[in-house]
């Protein structure tokens, strides 16, 4: 069976983890944490990069930093992972779900303004499949209404909007290094980017369990203590050591993933032209970081058939999100009407992801393409 995902090992992970163990500094904010953070700050120009234990944690930190309080409203696309909404729900926010674009699962920027009320505090654009949302439109709306923007860039490492790295455009950007992402911190990990200087000092405090420990280590204060809210958001050095090995090979990883993506695109374009399904939409302003290769079937039945057919042919293809506005949790906890979000529901029913990982070889990609062509013949 060709799996859907397989985490890639560069071969240096164990070496760096061993180094972290034997230098005797295992807790967070050591050499490897700082190396990873510095790479993101230097390579992508993020003002402040902070390693976290997961992408979910990075979103939770952002929600605290946005000072989201009970009753505040947060606009989130419904076609996303639970954490994009949950991080704000934990602060007492009311989630206002927005629909996807017609051609891709990203939040439709033209439908955001109608959802804004005096209580709107944050907009959370999710760069689905690592493809940029239309950030100029979103930042313009946010600035005019004095709203903060938290980019859920969990899938968007090394991807750009009009030349600007994703995660560095909104007030905050949140990345994930879960084992299903392009690079991993040994299974779980994340990064918070703070792009607005006003929030940097508080971000470090929340990261360090509500203490000003970071300032103490820089010699800015002569003792440290409890000054704010926070939690244990910083990962162990072992996780950062693992991630460092992967970041050193980022260009190699990205290049191979893009090759696979292009093979799929080339091999399936005739069926797409015939209207059997649609291909991933790449707006002019976005780059492709090959996080994912998906196609959108015409309906749920055809998608079910495709997934079953591929399984018979030893290929594991999978669907993705269920609409969050139709989830059990939201049904039981929402205030007001449940919105109708047809584009979101269509992606929930019709989108299917094909295997995508570094070690997937050309023969396997060809086999997957041939199977799909065979089914639609
Ligand atoms: C993976 C993912 C997350 C959560 O990241 P974790 O590191 O698993 O907590 C959040 N949002 C999106 C869009 C994701 O793909």
Question: How would you portray this structure in words?
Answer:
The protein is α/β, with parallel strands linked by helices and 377 residues long. It has two domains: 13-248, Aspartate Aminotransferase, domain 2, CATH 3.40.640.10; 250-376, Aspartate Aminotransferase, domain 1, CATH 3.90.1150.10. It is built from 13 helices and twelve strands. It has helices spanning 13-22, 31-44, 55-65, 82-89, 135-145, 200-207, 213-217, 237-248, 250-273, 300-312, 328-333, 342-350, 362-376, and strands at residues 48-52, 73-77, 94-98, 120-123, 148-152, 160-161, 164-165, 172-176, 190-194, 277-278, 293-297, 351-354. The two termini are 23 Å apart. The mean pLDDT is 97. It binds pyridoxal-5'-phosphate. Residues 54-56, 80-81, 83-84, 126, 152, 154-155, 176, 178, 190 line the site of pyridoxal-5'-phosphate (PLP).
Summarize the structure.
The chain has helices spanning 13-22, 31-44, 55-65, 82-89, 135-145, 200-207, 213-217, 237-248, 250-273, 300-312, 328-333, 342-350, 362-376, and strands spanning 48-52, 73-77, 94-98, 120-123, 148-152, 160-161, 164-165, 172-176, 190-194, 277-278, 293-297, 351-354. By secondary structure, it is an alpha/beta fold. The chain is globular.
């Amino acid at each position: 069976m060709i799996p859907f995902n397989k985490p890639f090992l560069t071969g240096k992970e164990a070496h760096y983890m061993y180094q972290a163990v034997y230098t005797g500094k295992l807790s967070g904010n050591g050499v490897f944490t700082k190396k990873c953070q510095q790479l993101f700050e230097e390579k992508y120009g993020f003002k402040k990069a902070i390693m976290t234990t997961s992408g979910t944690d990075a979103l939770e930190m952002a929600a605290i930093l946005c000072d989201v309080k009970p009753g505040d409203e947060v606009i989130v696309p419904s076609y996303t992972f639970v954490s994009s909404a949950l991080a704000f729900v934990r602060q007492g926010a009311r989630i206002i779900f927005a629909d996807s674009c017609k051609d891709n699962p990203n939040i439709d920027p033209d439908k955001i303004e109608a959802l804004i009320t005096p209580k709107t505090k944050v907009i959370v654009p999710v760069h689905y499949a690592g493809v940029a949302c239309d950030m100029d439109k979103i930042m313009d709306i946010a600035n005019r209404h004095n709203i903060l923007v938290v980019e859920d860039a969990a899938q968007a490492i090394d991807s750009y909007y009009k030349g600007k790295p994703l995660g560095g455009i909104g007030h905050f950007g949140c990345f994930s290094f879960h084992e299903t992402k392009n690079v991993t911190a040994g299974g779980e990990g994340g990064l918070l980017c703070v792009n607005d200087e006003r929030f940097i000092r508080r971000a470090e405090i929340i990261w360090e369990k509500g203490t000003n420990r970071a300032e103490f280590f820089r010699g800015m204060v002569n003792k440290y203590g409890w000054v704010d809210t926070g939690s244990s958001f910083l990962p162990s050095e072992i996780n950062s050591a693992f991630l460092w090995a992967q970041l050193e090979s980022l260009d190699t990883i990205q290049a191979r993933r893009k090759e696979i993506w292009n093979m799929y695109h080339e091999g399936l374009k005739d069926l797409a032209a015939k209207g059997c399904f649609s291909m991933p939409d790449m707006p002019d302003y976005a780059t492709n970081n090959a996080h994912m290769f998906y196609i959108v079937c015409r309906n749920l039945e055809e998608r079910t058939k495709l997934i079953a057919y591929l399984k018979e042919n030893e290929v594991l293809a999978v669907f993705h999100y269920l609409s969050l506005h139709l989830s059990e949790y939201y049904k039981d906890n929402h205030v007001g009407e449940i919105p109708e979000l047809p584009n979101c529901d269509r992606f929930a029913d019709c989108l299917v992801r094909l295997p995508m990982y570094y070690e997937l070889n050309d023969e396997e990609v060809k086999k997957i393409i041939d199977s799909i062509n065979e089914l639609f013949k």
